[in-house]
Specification:
It is a single chain. The strands form two sheets. The chain has a three-stranded mixed β-sheet with strand order 1-4-5. With 357 residues, it is mainly alpha-helical. The two termini are 40 Å apart. The protein has one domain.
Length: 357
Amino acid sequence: MAEHPLANLRMKLKEANLLEKPTSKSWTKVVILLVVVCALYIAHIYLPLKFGLLLIPITALFSTTLAMAGHEGVHSSACKSKAGNTSLAAIIFPLFAGFSMEYWREKHNIGHHAHPNVVNVDPDIHSWPFTFSQEEYKTSGPIRRFFQRHLQGWTFWPISLLVGHLMRFDGLKYIATKPFKSKKKRITKIWLFDTSLILVHFMLWLALPILLGLSWQATFGFYVLLWSLVGTCLTAIFIVGHAGRPIITEYDQNWRLQIETARRIKLGPIGSFFFVGLDYQIEHHLFPAMSHFNLPKAAPLVKEYAEERGWKYQELGFFRAIWESTIALHRAWKTPSLVLDSSGELNDPSLLENSKV
């Protein structure tokens, strides 16, 4: 059998002990974040409204970071044991955030990670009414094409306020319909676990505060506003990892695909704390089961691996990446998807067709 393309790189990472999963560090970070967000939520109860509104962006930022730690649990990169990863993901995703961890695993781990930025396969580049490529623009209706051509870039960030709520809704739809779509066992233990914790989430966030005397207006208002801001924070973290990188129609080198459709975001230790590893998007895509604590040390090895093969390893500062991602959304309607071929070239398929004529 031929040697795996990442065999040498993986060996270097193993020799540096970067494939080990620091369980205690992962749980310590999660516990600290839980204490911080609980303290912030209590502060909102006792603070006057105007001070609470000033504080809520900070509350949303720490809530986002806690949610991102759940992303590690779903990738099995936080703990050495399966039970530890499942427990961590369950506490954060369905219980804390109300997000279905099973829906996220199917959409993100299976759909996105296997085919990043690949047309008609990666769910992250198919989000109605937006387009991420010229090909999708051409298949859209006239009203949607008008939106994509003239309004998409301007409305993307305001619409991102809906992302947290839409993720929750999509997860609820997934767990509600899964038993009817499953061809094997309809009700599984993980489905019951996921569903039960989401129900507890709504009881703790909405029913309990009202029973304890808070007004329903304040309770629902805080919930909607907080998770709207969390949605925008999540969008900022995820969009800079891939937007503005090549959109692919065909490819034959998966490892190059993982590197050249992502980018590394250059942050200091404080910014990196809040990203929970997604500032190292390239390394995360090559080794999704690697703990985010080890990604900074793995980055120089991965960069060397890419550059030895002549592959583009892009590094940008956060605000530059936000700018380039937003500009890419403005221009997505006229940006053709590319073919990633064995020659090492990224080719425009329309030019390839013209050359055959």
